[in-house]
């Protein structure tokens, strides 16, 4: 059992739940509050339907696209996720190699467990650095300069976490980074020996981008000081592409476009922050209508299949990102599990394209947003 048992994202999640410590699984899987936001997002995606078309020659199909003018073998990439090495030792590097193989963006989190320099090298340049504004911003702008020096060409500013959302599942386990191991955590690890032995042999996962900076990142520190002036300063300082992630409001989207942001990522942070936020897929067509057909618009949150990804493209996204399900695949079957799920997602989208009668992504018809 392992990679060969993964036939869907749910298979990967089920296997990961069995193999990961409860604390780690609930950190990856959990959402804000009672998780109604996550359910709302899932329900909205499930409610969307695709229009089957018949007797069209779709014998030759392609999932290839372009992102910021660069070719990509898939219309989906890897969302920035913190502390991926909790799913398995070396998970960050597995994701980087996947990005390199398919020419898709790897989102490198501020709180990655592998240094940003190593990840962009392993991804052969297919890496975007994700930034949190934190505290007074002094450490934040150090990371911006470091990303520039490392060769990053695209920066993702995540703006939907002015304060870290309350996720009861991880709070019940006493989850903190860096780890604080007490009796409950010790028992949890002891009951999952394969994970514990392999992880501890490789060393406790840490927030690697801060080891070189000489200070410890506090994931609970307020990020509420960021404002439109902060964005303007960042725009002036960053010469490459600037993406703002975590947008769910049409007025904000229009203002971001006017402020010189190169792309917007519609996202609810996987429903991990504000439980009462709208389902991102429901606001995506409205934001597309507001920013126009030619403005780059990305999407993440709640995607669990290739059909989900196709729905987001049809709702107005130019490119989408998968997140936690990739960590589940790694936990379930290592690097082979990751590639297995990636193949499943690709096949799901490819088959769905055939069913709706399109051979290329450029043939997808978007709604008008009304």
Automatic annotation (TrEMBL):
Annotated Pfam families: FMN_dh
Domain annotation FMN hydroxy acid dehydrogenase: ranges: 1-370
UniProt EC number: 1.1.99.31
Residue sites binding FMN per the record: 80-82, 109, 130, 158, 245, 267, 300-304, 323-324
Active site positions: 269
Annotated keywords: Flavoprotein, FMN, Oxidoreductase
One MF term in the entry's GO annotations: FMN binding
GO CC field: plasma membrane
One GO biological process term: aerobic respiration
PROSITE patterns the record matches: FMN_HYDROXY_ACID_DH_2
Names of required cofactors: FMN
Protein residues bound to glyoxylate: 27, 132, 167, 269, 272
Annotated family: Belongs to the FMN-dependent alpha-hydroxy acid dehydrogenase family.
PANTHER family given in the database record: 2-HYDROXYACID OXIDASE 1, S -2-HYDROXY-ACID OXIDASE-RELATED
Protein name, per record: (S)-mandelate dehydrogenase
Organism name: Ruegeria arenilitoris
